[in-house]
Protein 1
Amino acid sequence: MSNLHGAAVEDDEPELLRDQFKQLLRYRAVIGTGIGIGLLGGVWFGLSNADTYVATSQVVLRAPVNDPFNPSISQDKTLNVGSERQTALSSSVAEGAAKKLHWTGTIGRLQRDLQVTNPPQSQVLQFSYTADTPQAAADRANAMTQAYLELREKQWTAIRAKMLQGLKNELDEASLRHDKQEKKVDRMPAGAARDAEYGIKTNLANRMIELEGRVSGLKSLDMSAGTVIRTATAPGYSDGPSLAMSLGLGALVGVALGLLAAWVRLVFDPAPRSAGDVARAVRAPVLGTLPRGATETLLAGDHTDAKVGEEFRSVAFRLAYDQRFADRRRLLVVAPRGSSEPAAAVATNLAASFAETGKDVLLVEADLRTPTLAGRLRANASGAPRWSSAAEPDESGWPGRRQLSVDAGESGSFGLVPGERVRNVARALTSPRVSRLIAEADSPNSTVVVLAPPVLAYADALALVDRVDGVLIVCDPRSVHRVDLQRIRELIGGAGGTVLGAVMFTPPTRRAAKAAAKAAARSSARSDAPQSRRGGGRAKPPRQQPAGQEEEYEPEPDPRVWGGENSDTVALRSVRPEDLRAGDR
């Protein structure tokens, strides 16, 4: 089992990497900005270094020794190359070079373009100078080299002069003592005492010979600090990278910068990054991901893309095989916030998909604030439904006693209870008639789909959860936060419901939305044109309906419907289960 688990983890790793890379590509603007910054930096770097020339000279270091060919004398022990490199970069060398070059600028400006390096395993210092012209680079490199050699020779000479002065002083003192000792010995008679004094005289003579040898050796030393083995010449080409190379390097840096910025943006993005994030937030599976623009059409049969209808059928089948939904056959479709148009499209297409499987489907538009389905669907009036009773008091005004039949094309038809504006939304949603309406799902082979306003905008959906406990969330992952989805799950769970799953969609682009709006406007203008040419605003006489043909549904105005702008909004009231049972009786 452990081997199988390890193999599964290894198989999932490439998929996780692909998913993370796709998530990074969501932030194309951030990545594009990083690439743009990198390209601009590459252009600046290429142009600023296009006219830079580097000239190089080399010096072999040496220390003043009596016998440079003596193998027992090691230059490595005599010289410290690191200290010599720091001396070459010092301001003293730069001041000497400035005098040679007749430099009028600052010493720091002259030092800034100098580089002194030491090739490994060698006693060589390499002077490299960068300038705007080839000849200036060569002249300044040679001037720096000569200034360094002169400074080191002057330092060595000063040390030798000091040593010579000390030896001469010591030699003069020894010579004076020798002369005194010699006079003393000459005055003494022969004997042991004279012999002792004579030995002292001999030692002083030997000391004088030694000091004279040391003075002679110091005077014979070569004080040159090194030998120039390479003189700087004017380079024939620029040392800076070409513009094409600078652009390439800038593009690579820009891609890295853009990906890093996109990763930071991804980490701190409050929106769900993938279907997995949505599933974790609602603790339910993502039943489907609709193609772009799929929610712009209420019925998939009116859509030109066949994939849209197949995706809705796939969501319906996954719900049908969910035991929690199959036992009660009640579904509440809601959106998190904003417009309820996507949720309306999903609810309508799910109703058509259930009807296609032979179910007796009833779509209930519980959006009593902005009801639109009756005017947008091909709906005809049908007979009085089972949930309507003539003797029942009608206090809320919704639902009415008429049920519509929606033609879903090849999928068949399904019932529609259209929403209507009412004075008291809370009372209408918690009325016994609504409970009886939703109880239609208890009939064999029946399914009830309820469309409610956004959960985080109104509490209407929560008022229905105790009777329609299976909830489907319709969301655009780019416009909703993970915190919002978690809050919706907590609200639904607290009201006694269960989130069956989520459906994700992608809104159409601005161009596609504008084209759809223009097409709808042209279609509305064509349908309104004949009426505007008739009678100049007089009321159209009622049309006679042919015998045997169903009457098209035209909602009648209800005087109890809330339509005033200054009307008060009534909050949701608490309804006890015994009140609902008493109303059913």
Protein 2
Amino acid sequence: MTIMRFLGVMLMTIFLAPGSPALAQAVADGPHLAMRLVAESERPRAGQPVTLAIETRPEAGWHGYWSNPGDAGFPASFGWTLPGGVTAAAADWPVPETLVVAGLMNYVYERPYAPLVALTVPAGLANGIALPIRLTLKYLVCTRTVCVPEEQTLATTLTVGDGAITPAARARFDAWRRAIPRPLAQAATWAVTDGALRVAVPYPADAALSDAYLFPAAAGSIEPAAAQTVERVGDRVIVTTKGTPIAPFAAVLRIGAGQGLAITAGPGVVPGAAGSGGWVIAALIAFAGAVLGGLILNVMPCVFPILSLKALSLARANTGEREARREALAYAGGVVLVCLALGAIILGLRAGGATIGWAFQLQDPRVVVVLLLLAVAISLNLSGLFEVPMPRWAGGAGASKGVGGAFATGALAAFVATPCSGPFMGAALGAALVLPVPAALAVFGGLGLGLALPFLLLGFVPALRRRMPKPGAWMGRLRRILSVPMWLTALALAWVLGRQAGVEGMTLGLAAALLAALGLWIGGRRQHKGLGLGWAMVPVIASLGAVALVRPVPAGATTATAGDAFSESRLAALRAEGRPVFAYFTADWCLTCKVNEKAAIERSGVQAAFTRNKVAVLVGDWTDGDPVLGRFIERHNRAGVPLYLYYAPGAAAPRVLPQVLTPAMLEALGR
């Protein structure tokens, strides 16, 4: 019990002491809450729930209390007397009002209100059986100067029947339900900074908001009497107040008169308040992390060959300063534009309620087919089988020549980099999802800038170009060597396709790749004779038909191999047992995830250490974009996978491990 609530209860106790004239008069005039038990259907169907409303009308000048009364008062207690097999759920309470008396904050109802209770009628009951329902309510009712504990017994009798609801009853219950806070699918986050508790609630930037207030569902998270300031930052509502939560807590955000959202807030990143400059610092840090993460992406096997080929084109062409800079800027433009487009799509879908993150498109096997065909085409191009024709405006016949070719190459590099993640990148993109939209897009642009940075340096620093080897026959050999990582990328994408769409889907994708390769081979033969690709593009275009035919396998058909399947209930059970828990979140299309699993997690030494230290392992497979896992990942400030968490016994929050794991790091867990 907080000090404020203790003082409130003491004041009430003194005021209501025996012999108090005010109490005597109040008791004589009670009850002060007119109550009635109303059923949505007088003839509920056996085996189905029926909703009961406790229709309550406070007497003028009096008020009842919410399920969390605030600094003073106490919540109503429910005593049900029900027929055998009938059960009653906890009451759903309407959005309350605030009332400050003598510095104490109360969460109350001064107008008519109706808590709703779901009553479950057991299956197998014959029509016509009577169901007597009896409810004894003990509650506190107050004015601004006096409080009285009261008790009422409400009763009704239902009859098992067809579950029919009259239009009048439906309209009345619909009105009551509109006053019940709607559950918010996305999780809110909280952080304590400089003694202030700040809570960020996902809420569309263009949605109406008035008279906003955050009601804690239970004592101990938010100080009821503390002032609250509410500001909007992008698609978040930021509430700043006082409180000392130590774990996720439930609350209700009032968004208008009698309207609210039921939220769960966990510790995490909260963007700075508008005008305070706090989010600017967070955005700058996220931008720097995104640039560094994008720079690291250049060494990934799906990006490095494209970058190398583009760099070698500068050496081969022996271009002047102006042309080199133009190509560098065009390449960077293609990279940044694709990253910005993906970021805008992610932010737009999330504003609409979707739970997605970086590489979300790879959750669709049809996109994987497109990437597979691209990887095969790039591999064949690097192998020298054919050259990519470019229009005159793009620089002629060379695959990577001219401004247009550089722009297309940069866009391609950014698109094929989406399965990859690395150090700094996950945290940066996770932070972007809680920043204002312009700042979030800047972070995605920073990722593109980092990805384009090596080629930008080559274009703008002549000394770097002079250090590159002189053109020669070695360039053709290197180009064929660079086809190897691209072939490995194509192989990995085929495996991902098999996991997502089954053997049939993988076979269809490989058949499409074979058809495309056949067309490109014929086209390459024509190019050697001085002709264009011509009709050889027909099978290449036909191969795209596989995109429309591939379908994902049923949910749950693919499973991760190391550890038990993750669920929050399983995690809670293991933590209740005092077990250390290593939880990791992966996807078949995540290259970094698979490298960590093979190089660290699945190593025999690591598995033996887990067994020795009794570390439980939970695996969250996000291959198909499970929204439940997506929301959990988001609560830990990540925009996607990989995510590695270690829960030490008794710790309030998990330790977030780096995105690049080592066996030694994992073997030390649980010691």
Protein 3
Amino acid sequence: MFAEGIEASVAPASGKAGALLFSWKVVGKRAVTQLPAFPDFNTVPTGLHSLSHRQLNFAPPVFDSPQDVSTPWVLFDDSGHALIISPASDFFLASMLGDAKTRIAVGLNSEVGELPVGFTATTLVAAAPDIATAYDVWGTALRGLYHRHPAAPDADATLRYIGELTDNAGGHYYYNYEYAQGLNYEESLVRFIQRSREAGIPFGYLQLDSWWYAKSAWNPHQKVGRIKNPALPDEDWNRYGGLIEWKAQPGVFPKGMAEFHQRVNLPFLAHNRFIDKDSPYRKRFAISGLAAIDRGYWDELADYAANNGIAIYLQDWLDAIYKFSPELQSVPGKGELFTDGMASAMAARGITMQYCMAYPLFMLQGVKYPNLTTIRAAGDGLTRDHWTQLAFNARLIHEVGAWPATDVMPSHDTAAMLFATLSGGPVGVGDAFEDLDRANIFKVVRADGEIVKPDEPLMPLDVSYMTQARQTGAPIIGATFTRHGSHATAYVLAFADDPSKGPEDFSLTPATLGFSGAVAVFDPIAQTLATPSSTDTITGKLEGADAFAYRVIAPVSASGIAVLGDMGKFVSMGRKRVTSYDELAQGVQLKLAFAANDPAITVAGYSRSNVVPHAEGATILSTVRDSQTGWFKVQLQATTHTASEVTLVLNTSK
């Protein structure tokens, strides 16, 4: 017996070695009021650094200031040995406790009053020789507890296609439309989509932010004006307070959302917020604070979504919902009624979800829901100052089985478009039609709008956890990959934590990315190529106002060739372009996916000798190779204008 009325146990967690599951349970005949902490370590190794996440919207990461909230603690020493400890259940009630120097414990919120008989809490502890592996062990064990499979890279329209976002901090159509041109909201959006299609710009979904449904002028934690945009009509949709009714307002869509959906013929990512204090939903459903804990509410919303073209449900304002719903913080099971009801009602109708303004507890809770595909990882707008948070939050979100979502950006912002693509999550622009940057859009997508992306999110290398904890000011180095079997292509982004500090150098070895032997390193911005060995140091400067450097790295095969992929794409070997890669005795074979009406593409790389290309399903337009550098380019065009798969063989001559 761990304590009076409490039984506790420790056992290996299922999955990879290196994780332990700590559990305790209320037994006996009566509820308990004394809140246990288990595990509770009061002997802690010296010199540990920590990473945890603040109980603020978008869960900002913080080093060496361990947070007493429901968050993982990532503890690591100067050699990189790492241990992760976190709640593994009851994420609404759980809390880390201690300072990571004299105490490391997992307990419950002080607001919890009593625990009923049968209440069980669990904790995961995972250890590994390095930080990335510790995350992998921890994430595998956590997902295993909830039978969670990671969301596929193209699990829904937001992950598969480029989209138009009507969000704030960059969305042209955020509480705005072309009223000066005599159009209403619906006609403005219909015209935008029609003009985009006519121009061959293939948006695959449309985000509908909070402007389309009825809201109040009441907000529980900040003052808001009666009208959101004074230039627009004084109607219930033009507010910025609590939700009155989650239905399209006639002032926005005169014939309803279903009619609008037929006109644009795109799936919707549809926003929702907290429930107003005077909402009629409170008369029909159980509402706790600002949160619906009644399955009937969620069934009604999910039915509306399914009948009106809403394919992805976006739950925003999660921070306010938790903060102003005391029962979610203190009563076992109340929080789960909120998120379980949402997830199951949407899943029953084939609708996926995105979380926004989440505390770390919601990110952890999301491991339970296979239809939670994306979680916003930083604040509004994909501005340069969000890169650090996006990169470090990406690993947490990845391990719970979802994809990190960046926010709206202008398509002319090349750095933002690159970062969003490397994140592996949604790429959404907010431009008016006249401002769309066609060149940048097609660095992200094929002609059908499908994103050519990496296999996993851009995540920091271990060295960047060290330099952030030590506050050295060194550039952050993140990497992501495309893996075709045992063949990996790395995409490395190095960037300054503070771009205002001027140019800096970055350095890394290919070995830190898992390469052995010679590699080809391509700088897409400078269009330069190098061929170091895996133990040589790659160096460079962070360039431009955004202070970043980008490199694509591929291994040199036994036949002396390194393929770097489609030079027209940020992620040049992404699976939506290069579906397979195989080494041959004297070269390599690629399978290439062409969308309908894709233009000619250029496949490039390094070769020690001349390259002789052969193609099936495509015409080779040109082949060039620089004998000094080994840099080669093969331009080819699919022989059909329909979607097709092309086989490209690159033989090396002796």
Protein 4
Amino acid sequence: MHTPLLDYVRLDRSKLTDSSPDRATIGQILARVRPFIGRALSDLDPEVNESRGSTGSTHPPARRVDFTSSELMLTDEFLALEIDVSEDLRLCLSRLRNTPRTSSATEKEITKLVIAPLMEFFIGLITDGLDDGLGGRRWSVIEHLERSNGGDLDVVLKREDVRAPREDDFCGHQMVIEMKPCGTYADGVLRRFGENERATEPSQILGQLTSQAILQSNLTPEKPCVWLGLSQPPAYLYPCFYSKATHSIAVGSNLVKGFVEGDWHECIQNEKNWVHYIEACWAMVFSALVDLDEKVSEKWRARAPEQVALAKAFRMRAGDALRSNTGVFSSLTSIWATSPSLAQVLSAAAMVVIKPLKLFPNLTLPGAGTLDLDWSFMIRLPFGITLSYSEGEFMSKTALVIIYAQPRVVVKLYYDKQCYDREFACYRRLWRLQGHGIPILHAKGIRREDGLPFLITSNEGANLNDLSHNDRAALQPVIDSIHNSGLHHHDLHCRNVVRDKTGKLSVIDFGFGGECNKELCTDEWKEEYQD
């Protein structure tokens, strides 16, 4: 998986020192954190473990609601943002740098040596410079909060000036991270929990999360719901949200992308795992603080609007999950119509053949707004449709891409109007190639909330990480056809090629495409993906 933060880790361009003030980008600062965290656990003995045992939960497990986490990868804009490195941040970095090594894989040791100082560094960086009247200490980290009447919270991110939330506040003022020891990873318990298998251990985990959520909600009774995170570094990080009103826990998908192979010791030693985990942890904590603290939101909305938009989309999905009356998100498209039988028929049709989308006036994407479809020449039905949750989202400097498995479509919202105009013009010119080397264009229009233009195309498969000689040879007829139509792609690289389950390759993303004078322009494959 490509992650912008990994580029910073490899280049290690940071020039931070402990003795003098300095400026650095957020990417450079986060890149310096990774070696300290990996080193702290580098001597772990995979044979040293603690028994999971019983969770000791006295509460019935909450109703579980699954939702797909929206993309929380850090944006290039955010990582390249240059900030002043304060003395407080230097102190946090110094603590991480001096983290002692351990061979104990127990939950408490991992929490103490890795997670608690990492969370303290995150909230320090996110809230640095805010005028809060608390001597610069707006949030704090509490490690292993225990109650005299039973129950404990592994890591609590607590706001110092807790106040009664407004009616429109989403989650109050605290976030909790529950840790699991390496035995949980070795036995695949968290993986089964993420796959929602009905097994004993996942039920125990859900019961423990319920107990912790109730304990946290009792600490601040005015909170409508609480933020939770179920984690085992660096393999798994599940965002969870608990609602007291419905006694429900919404469980998101694993934020540490990809399947972590090998045993616990191999997992710890893999640098990429730690980079992905640090990035996911940072993004989740950032999303929580942006959501729970208006001053934090104002600060970053002005400096990193794309990152704040991702955070808000993530929050909206969790909120929609908890507000669901059924507790289960249907894999079918929900259609509102006057006739229930008609709704069923149209729902099935829309899932199998996407062309009926042209018959609807609008399309609602949970957490991403309402899309007004622009097909003025078509007869419209008197109702719109709502898609189920997506399987992935990706944000670039020019567009937000939302990928759906049911139905198999891709929705692309454009921040750059010229990019939209170029891509739509290319699809119109290349209509003979649609479905035969490039995606099929299904619909276009604007998002109702902000007027952003969008295109809906067929989902032709997953992006490639590299292009073999055979792949390029197979795509050459497609490239030749594009050129014969008088167009050049202008951004040919592996990440703009997708492969479906049958092996068919397609070229995507014509945002930089257009007509080109052969004497002044080339359209050659780039060796590597470059922004």
